Amino acid sequence: MHGHLDGPQTYSAVGNLAELVGRLPQVLDYLARSLRRAELARHYDDRGHDPADALDHADADLVDARREADALLDHLNAAHKHLGHLGRRLSED
Q1: Stretch 46-58: mean pLDDT, rounded?
Q2: Structural domain boundaries of the chain?
Q3: In angstroms, rounded to a whole number, what is the distance separating the alpha carbons of residues 71 and 68?
């Protein structure tokens, strides 16, 4: 994109972004569930640590990311609502 967006253009961009962010929780849940089902015997940690620790920490981070995605979506929806009240004045020739 070049230049600045006006209110209605930003409304559209924020709406599209909110739609994308709204899909994140499902993806993050899927990834966390996949980690919980992972077979420990099929994994190793290249740092020499117990792979269960890495899996547990990654799961916790994905759960946190999902919570943050929910909050982000709330903010995007609020911004979208406010932007929906804006129009652009057209200059008269």
Answers
A1: 95
A2: 7-83
A3: 5
